[in-house]
Every structure is written in C-alpha cells, then in structure tokens.
C-alpha cells in the first residue's frame, strides 16, 4: 500500500492544530475571565450596575486550522442600550468604566463623561473612571503564555502526532 505524502502532511497539520487548540483553549478562557475580573475589581461603587457582559467579548475557535481568538462586541449578544461595539471599544479596549462620549449638551464630545446625579442622570459629570483595559491585560497574558508554554505544548502535540502517524511515516520512508 502506497502512502500519499500530501494527504499525510495535511492530516498531521489538521490534527496538530486541533490538539494544540484544545490545549490552549482553557488557558485563553481563563485569561479572558481573569482580565475582566481584574477590570471589574478595580472600580466598584454601589451604584455602578454591571451586566458582566465583558466576559462575552471573545469567541474561541478550535478546529483543524490554527487556534483562533476573535475579540469584539458582536460576540456578547447582550443588547446593551449603547450597543455592543461601544461597550467593546470604550470599556473592553480603552478601560473606561461607563461614560458617554456624546449627547445633548455634552461639553467635550468624544470624552467619556458620567451623567450625574444618580439615579436621575440629568447633568454631565466628570470623566469616567479609567483602569487597565481587559483587552490589554488579556493580550499581555496570552502573549506571555505563548512565549513560555508554547514550546512545551508543541512538544506534547508532536509526541501525539508521532504516536498516531509513525507507522505511516515509516511506511512512506521504506516503500
């Protein structure tokens, strides 16, 4: 029986990507969850009503292709009154805890300002509180993880590939 080298390489690449993605997925989810927790914990006034939607700002895809991390408001499905993209850009990527960048009488369009007093929100207040954005924290933690653990995870995947495909590789080499 003849081994088709192209098909063998394709199968190995698909399996390798799938297995590597499966090993990376729990870490990516944990980094997202913890980066959002860190953001939420950095500012906690009593009247700040969160819907915890920043946890849903990512989609992770594990398949026969390289592990895919997509970040964006369209994944949240939260239906926030200002829109998912606004929450993604203003809070998740820029690190602001609320605030409106526009509206009737806004004194500094483009600058996120709080509305005051609670709960009437009839006047423009100060600049919304800013802390480290979850996006930057997530990306930093992910890049550090890939740099530290990437070689180890690839070694694990290579061992699995060797176990699964060694017989076919040897058959190809010695036909």
Outline the structure in words.
With 175 residues, the chain is mainly α. It folds into two domains: 92 residues, no CATH class; 35 residues, no CATH class. The protein is built from three helices and four strands, in the order H-E-E-H-E-E-H. The strands form two sheets. A two-stranded antiparallel ribbon has the order 1-2. Strands 3-4 form a two-stranded antiparallel ribbon. A hairpin with a 6-residue loop joins strand 3 and strand 4. Helix 1 packs antiparallel against helix 3. It is elongated and about 80 Å long. The termini are close together. The mean pLDDT is 90.
List the main descriptive attributes of the protein structure presented here.
single chain, 175 residues, mainly alpha, 2 domains, two-stranded antiparallel ribbon
In short:
This protein has 175 residues and is mostly helical. The chain folds into two domains: 5-48 and 63-68 and 132-173, no CATH class; 96-130, no CATH class. Helices cover 50% and strands 10% of the residues.
């Amino acid at each position: 029986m003849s081994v088709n080298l192209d098909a063998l390489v394709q199968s190995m690449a698909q399996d390798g990507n799938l297995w590597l993605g499966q090993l990376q997925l729990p870490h990516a989810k944990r980094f997202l969850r913890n980066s959002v927790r860190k953001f939420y914990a950095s500012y906690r006034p009593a009247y700040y009503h969160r819907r915890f939607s920043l946890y849903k700002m990512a989609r992770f895809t594990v398949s026969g292709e390289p592990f895919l991390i997509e970040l964006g408001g369209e994944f949240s499905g939260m239906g926030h009154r200002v829109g998912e993209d606004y929450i993604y850009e203003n809070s998740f990527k820029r690190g602001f805890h609320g605030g409106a960048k526009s509206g009737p009488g806004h004194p500094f369009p483009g600058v996120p300002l709080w509305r005051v007093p609670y709960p009437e929100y009839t006047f423009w207040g100060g600049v919304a509180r800013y802390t480290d954005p979850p996006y930057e924290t997530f990306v930093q933690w992910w890049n550090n993880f890939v740099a530290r653990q990437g070689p180890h995870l690839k070694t694990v995947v290579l061992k699995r590939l060797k176990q699964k495909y060694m017989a076919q590789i040897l058959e190809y080499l010695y036909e």
